[in-house]
Design goal:
There is one protein chain. A hairpin with a 3-residue loop joins strand 10 and strand 11. Strands 2-1-3-4-5 form a 5-stranded parallel β-sheet, sandwiched between helices. It has a 4-stranded antiparallel β-sheet with strand order 6-7-8-9, covered by helices on one side. Helix 6 packs across helix 7 and helix 6 crosses helix 8. By secondary structure, it is α/β, with parallel strands linked by helices. It has 2 domains: 121 residues, Response regulator (Rossmann fold), CATH 3.40.50.2300; 101 residues, Winged helix-like DNA-binding domain superfamily/Winged helix DNA-binding domain (Arc Repressor Mutant, subunit A, Orthogonal Bundle). The chain is built from 8 helices and 11 strands.
């Protein structure tokens, strides 16, 4: 079945390039040119992935991302002309899974999208993964079902937070630096910015820690990296 991708982009030239490269690679595409139109399209139709620009008429990409992420768990790839870390971290903080800067290579965009979809499908399809349950303290992670529980309460985590938690819980008390975590979780390359790792760590703390500002499990080892403390 053909996978369907929503492109939310107000620049017709850029959206046409994205559409052409994606369709050549076998994806079905739909284009929305404003923030409100893109959000409505995302929430009323079924898509496998969303490509989202930041600078949009009507509603910026950050707000669109936040509204979509509150209701949907599908990969969101942000594409932006802004190259500051603040904007990238903000986008990831609102729930984006990855980003690319304009101008970009369409072939690299397609490669990143393939990687995102492959990771998402592995997490969502129990038939393609081994049953695995990690239990540390009051935290239970069911890898094959993409579910996390703190006590009896289920926590819904976006893809990257889930993968990051699974990796750290699978290696308790081992300290990993940002570069290693980025390579392990994003997988295909090191083209992104490792300063986004603390964003995901903080979001995980908000989800699983009783006191996110005084975490018991997701520990920062200053000057080195992060670890999961049993």
């Amino acid at each position: 079945m053909c996978q369907k991708i929503l492109i939310i982009e107000d620049d017709a030239d850029i959206s046409a390039i994205e559409r052409d490269y994606l369709e050549i690679n076998g994806y079905e595409t739909v284009i929305a040119e404003t923030g409100p139109d893109g959000m409505k399209e995302a929430l009323t139709e079924n898509y496998d992935l969303i490509i989202l620009d930041i600078m949009l008429p009507g509603m910026d990409g950050f707000e669109v991302c936040r509204n979509i992420r509150d209701r949907l768990d599908i990969p969101i790839m942000m594409v932006t002309a802004r190259n500051t870390d603040v904007d990238k971290i903000r986008g990831l903080g609102f729930g984006a899974d990855d980003y690319m800067e304009k101008p970009f290579s369409p072939s690299v965009l397609v490669a990143k999208i393939k990687a995102q979809l492959a990771q998402y499908n592995r997490l969502k399809n129990p038939a393609n993964s081994e049953t695995q349950k990690l239990m540390i303290g009051n935290i239970t992670l069911e890898a094959d079902k993409h579910r996390v529980f703190v006590g009896q309460i289920e926590k819904v985590l976006p893809n990257k937070e889930f993968q990051l938690l699974e990796f750290l819980m699978s290696n308790p008390d081992v300290v990993f630096n940002r570069e290693t975590l980025y390579e392990r979780i994003w997988g295909m390359d090191s083209m992104g910015n490792t300063s986004t790792i603390p964003v995901h760590i903080n979001r995980l703390r908000e989800a699983i820690e009783e006191e996110p500002t005084n975490p018991k499990h997701l520990i920062t080892v200053w000057g080195v990296g992060y670890k999961f403390r049993p």
